[in-house]
Write a structure and sequence with these properties.
It is built from eight helices and six strands. The protein is an alpha/beta fold. It has a single domain, classed as Rossmann fold (3-Layer(aba) Sandwich), CATH 3.40.50.850. The chain is globular.
Length: about 230
């Protein structure tokens, strides 16, 4: 009986697989090698760095062991971004005394009024000293989650011909997610420096960085972003 062409091809493929050499029993697996940092470039002349919600009250909500490494990466990014003369725009969330901006219907923020956190003028609402603004940096204050909501951020970006936004921030599921969504709808080129962002839930952070953000932004590491800045500076 004649074997159909498709079946014959499958049989040949199976025989080829069987003939491949196999590792000897007990042989150690090949050592794992980290993937090389991918070369990356962007339009630095029309880019800005957004440093979002690096406030004392918000940092304190992260595990203590995560705070130092996150600040190390954010500090390194700020240093190189300033050397490359990127505009630095800080985004902070703060409220007036008495929290008149907050509605009891706002599920995310309604508990803040009782806690006293993120009140204007309080130490907890200040940007952490290791990543504090310097002369010439811009600070934008918001009353909600996203960097564009309740702020004049878009006016600042348009006035300075900025079309590319690099982002670091806390939290990934808060300000970073909201800002990515809004900025994408406004047609900005978006870079999210994944390991310089943090969330209060590691799994949520992972899913956003691996599954959600890549559809609207380029997700890269601190190392890759610094290399791109250094390459432009040469």
């Amino acid at each position: 009986m004649r074997i159909p062409a498709r079946s014959a091809l499958l049989s040949l493929a199976w025989l080829a697989l069987l003939s491949l050499p196999r590792p000897a029993a007990g042989a150690p697996d090949a050592p794992h090698q980290s993937p090389p940092v991918q070369a990356f470039s962007f339009d630095r002349e029309h880019a800005a760095l957004l440093v979002m919600d690096f406030e004392n009250d918000i940092l304190a909500m992260l595990p203590e062991k995560a705070q130092g490494p996150l600040l190390d990466r954010a500090s390194a990014i700020l240093k190189e971004a300033r050397a490359a003369r990127l505009p630095i725009i800080y985004v902070v969330v703060r409220f007036r005394d008495g929290y008149p901006e907050l509605s009891p219907q706002n599920k995310r923020f309604s508990a803040l009024k009782a806690s006293g956190r993120l009140r204007e003028g309080s130490p907890g609402a200040e940007i952490h000293g290791r990543v504090a603004p310097q002369a010439g940096d811009i600070v934008v204050t918001k009353r909600r989650v996203g960097a564009f909501s309740t702020t004049d951020l878009e006016s600042i970006l348009r006035a300075n011909h900025i079309t590319t936004l690099a982002m670091i921030g806390i939290s990934t599921s808060g300000v970073v997610l909201s800002t990515v969504r809004w900025a994408s709808d406004l047609d900005y080129q978006l870079l999210v420096v994944g390991d310089a962002c943090a969330d209060f839930d590691d799994e949520v952070h992972r899913v956003l960085m691996e599954k959600v953000f890549p559809g609207q932004a380029t997700v890269l590491t601190t190392e890759a972003f610094l290399q791109a800045l250094e390459a432009k500076a040469k």
